[in-house]
Amino acid sequence: MLSLTLRASVLGLALGLLGAPAPGADPEPDEKKIDLRVGDPAPTFQLLDERGKTWSSSDQGKKWVVVYFYPGDFTPGCTAQANAFRDAMLKLREKGVEVVGISGDSVKTHEMFKKAQKLNFTLLSDEDGAVAKQFGVPFGKGSTVKTKDADGNPITIERAGTAARWTFVIGKDGKIAYKNTSVQAAEDAKKITEFITKAGEK
Fold first, then answer.
1. Residue 65 lies in domain
2. pTM to 2 decimal places
3. Checking CA distances to 97, which of 2, 68, 138, 177 falls within 20 to 30 Å?
4. Distance of alpha carbon 114 from alpha carbon 103, whole angstroms
5. Is residue 47 included in any domain, yes or no?
6. How many whole angstroms from its chain centre is CA 194?
7. Which stretches does DSSP call E strand in the chain?
8. Per the residue annotation, which of 36, 65, 78, 137 is the catalytic one?
């Protein structure tokens, strides 16, 4: 018969192999959930844009910055959202607004998506979801998308991770001025334009 000490060691090893903590082991602490609110200081971050160049939030100066997280390039809802921002950019730029779209897509995929949709604003690659987590945006598994590039050629895209569709506006003071966690893709640009217009009138 195994001694009590040996039996405990065998039990601990078995639990360890199963991914369960051995008796008496301290459980790993849960990762703290970030919940940004209007009025909170906005996170500072750096990511690569669709050209492979570093875009830094700290380089934007005192201007409105729209940061919209979206699931992925070339999907119907995300394409509608991007095109709506594209069409609103003239008006937004007149108000001194910078727009950046962030997803888990690669720099190369962003380059193809921007070209295919003729986008006139920056796309940022957040493949590991690090910046999404800074903003408290849910970030899950990636996926595969079959679509066509700007020349109509079939392409298959592998996305590393998928962010939820959330939109933030960072004010000129560097604080969160607007947060929407229930974004309607095609209406996002319109709502942002209305918000910034009203804010500028105050």
1. 36-201
2. 0.83
3. 138
4. 13
5. yes
6. 23
7. 46-49, 54-56, 64-69, 97-103, 122-125, 139-148, 154-163, 166-170, 176-180
8. 78
